[in-house]
Write a structure and sequence with these properties.
The chain is mostly helical and 143 residues long. The protein contains five helices and no strands. The mean pLDDT is 77.
């Protein structure tokens, strides 16, 4: 029990660790996150090309995950190269926490908001289709 608790000290998080297999594991995880972000971005863009809420949803997923995956790749590579400040375990774990928290927030909370935004968008489109000629200022002529 004492050896487990000793791992959570400042020596563990802020020391330059030796290269282990976990470096390649985290590098692979961040690379997979990058691929998943690009794939889901393309999927959401293709699924709702004409619907603005899908495009916004895709952007809100893609850019933060792209940024976090790039930061994670840089940090794991710097750990492999044993750079002085960037190779601390602390930075990789903080990046992993950000990835987990953002994606949980995104898929739990933002997904519900997407359904509401789609319903509102579809109602607005329907109103504009049937009432657009009366309310649309572009169709009115100046007399």
């Amino acid at each position: 029990m004492k050896t487990i608790l000793s791992r959570f000290g400042s020596d563990y998080f802020f020391a330059i660790p030796p290269e282990t297999g976990i470096v390649w594991f985290w590098f692979g995880c961040f690379a997979v996150l990058l691929v998943i972000a690009v794939t889901l971005y393309m999927y959401f863009r293709a699924k709702g090309f004409k619907q603005k809420p899908y495009r916004l949803y895709a952007k809100r997923f893609f850019w933060p995950n792209l940024t976090l995956a790039t930061i994670g790749l840089v940090l794991t590579f710097s750990r492999y190269e044993k750079l002085a400040l960037l190779s601390y375990r602390f930075w990789v774990y903080v990046t992993i926490l950000f990835v987990v928290f953002y994606n949980v927030y995104f898929f739990m909370i933002r997904r519900n908001q997407l359904e509401d935004e789609l319903l509102k968008f579809n109602n607005d489109e329907r109103k504009q289709k049937w009432l657009g000629s009366r309310n649309n200022k572009k169709n009115k002529t100046n007399k």
